[in-house]
Design a protein that fits this description.
The structure is a single chain. By secondary structure, this protein is α/β, with parallel strands linked by helices. It has 2 domains: 140 residues, Aspartate Aminotransferase, domain 1; 231 residues, Type I PLP-dependent aspartate aminotransferase-like (Major domain) (Aspartate Aminotransferase, domain 2), CATH 3.40.640.10. Helices cover 42% and strands 15% of the residues. It has a 7-stranded mixed β-sheet with strand order 4-10-9-8-7-5-6, with helices on both faces. The chain has a 3-stranded antiparallel β-sheet with strand order 11-14-13. Strands 1-2 form a two-stranded antiparallel ribbon. Strand 5, helix 6 and strand 6 form a beta-alpha-beta unit. The longest helix has 28 residues. 44% of the residues are buried. The structure holds pyridoxal-5'-phosphate. Pyridoxal-5'-phosphate (PLP) binds next to helix 5.
């Protein structure tokens, strides 16, 4: 039973099984402390601190002024689908037909459409642990089952073809990969991804690759899964690299044979993605926007380098430098045996908000915390100093 305004109602088992995103609890408490006058350094938020680039905002405003207020086709604005297809050729040298591109309400919308399309009750979806928590909830909502495969620094916190082969069984239908990953920021190697794609195809399964942090890779970023064997279903978004989180716009690239099914589902679930957001996103690939985004990427890279070294010095263990996204996933077992309590105490006593491992990991969540470098270098430095002071005080108290 759930309760709503004092009235009891039946909450479905499906809904009751969905856990909260704990980072939201941290964020809510941080906001409360700020409203009481406390200064908080935010390293919990998985959202760029930069605003949407001006050329995108202007294109959105223009669309609104021109009366672009009506539904688009469920699969998205044809011009934007073509523009996304062109982007794959220009940036990655991969030709795909615009028919394969589907515009969605965020990549969250894409992931839900895909799970709805691919998963029958009881079907099993293989994914890395730690991973993005919403994925297991999407699978649960559609009555599928998740199989969480423990991964560590040795495989860059990514699945390998050997692991997929080891865990694959008669109920397995789908393998989900995020690269760069949230929470670890690590990227899967091209060869490994190819081997996984080949294995999944040979076994009649489907591969989903979430590339939403793809623009935020700090080394060679010229790789995408769109034309690997299968082909895999590739999810992407305007949220992170393009700085459009609140516009709620993403896309995916699907096999031509899947477009009809996705269209039927999208018509029923969402009708269409936001029209002004789609017109705004047409400017996302312009040279002027790209210049702004590349500068931001460089700033993120510098923040990563600084924070990585500072965390090691404080006693966190990070065995592998993450190649992308804006996260550092750190082993804190040398400093605490309970990462949730540690994160809460850091917030309460040091004014630093970070995310505990229980949001991402099923295995050993108490060992891990995630730092997001989605705030200025100055703020990151302030956060580091506060953590240092907190740890020094703790060790003094223990002595
Ligand atoms: C790996 C991953 N996939 C998907 C999403 C959903 O993002 P959006 O719906 O804003 O595109 C997120 C958000 O943090 C994410 O980290």
């Amino acid at each position: 039973m759930g309760r709503y305004c004092g009235v009891s109602f039946h909450e479905s088992r499906r809904a009751a099984a969905i856990e909260p995103f704990y980072v939201m609890e941290i964020l809510a408490r941080a906001r409360q402390l700020e409203s009481e006058g406390r200064s908080i350094v935010h390293m919990e938020i998985g959202e760029p601190d930069f605003d949407t680039p001006q050329p995108i905002v202007e294109a959105g405003v223009k669309a609104l002024r021109e009366g672009r207020h009506h539904y688009t086709p469920a699969l998205g604005l044809p011009e934007l689908r073509s523009r996304v297809a062109d982007h794959y050729l220009e940036r990655y040298g991969e030709w795909i037909s615009a028919e394969r591109v589907v515009i969605t309400p965020g990549s969250s919308g894409a992931l839900q459409l895909l799970v709805a399309l691919l998963v029958d009750p009881g079907d099993e979806v293989l994914m890395a642990d730690p991973g993005y928590p919403c994925n297991r909830h999407f699978v649960r909502l559609f009555e599928g089952k998740t199989l969480h495969i423990p991964v560590g620094a040795d495989s860059g916190f990514q699945l390998t073809a050997d692991l997929v082969a080891q865990y694959w069984n008669a109920n397995s239908r789908v393998v989900m990969i995020s690269s760069p990953s949230n929470p670890t920021g690590t990227v899967i190697e091209r060869g490994e991804l190819e081997r996984i794609a080949a294995f999944v195809e040979q076994h009649g399964g489907t591969l989903i690759v979430d590339e939403i942090y793809q623009g935020l890779i700090y080394g060679d970023d010229t790789v995408t899964a769109v034309n690997l064997p299968g082909p895999p279903f590739v999810v992407n978004s305007f949220s992170k690299y393009y700085g459009m989180t609140g516009w709620r716009l993403g896309w995916m690239v699907v096999a031509e044979e899947a477009v009809g099914g996705v269209d039927r589902l999208a018509q029923n679930l969402f009708l269409a993605p936001s029209t002004p957001a789609q017109y705004a996103a047409l400017a996302a690939f312009d040279a002027a926007t790209e210049e702004i985004l590349q500068q931001r990427r460089e700033r993120f890279r510098r923040r990563r380098d600084m924070l990585y070294l500072a965390l090691l010095e404080l006693g966190f263990i990070i065995e592998r430098v993450p190649e992308g996204a804006f996260y550092l996933y750190a082993d804190c077992s040398g400093l605490t045996d309970d990462s949730s309590r540690f994160a809460m105490n850091l917030l309460e006593y040091a004014g630093v908000a970070i995310t505990p491992g229980k949001d991402f990991a099923i295995q050993e969540p108490h060992r891990w915390v995630r730092f997001a470098y989605t705030t200025s270098t100055e703020q990151l430095r302030r956060g580091i100093e506060r953590i240092r002071a907190y740890l020094t005080e703790q060790s003094g108290a223990a002595a």
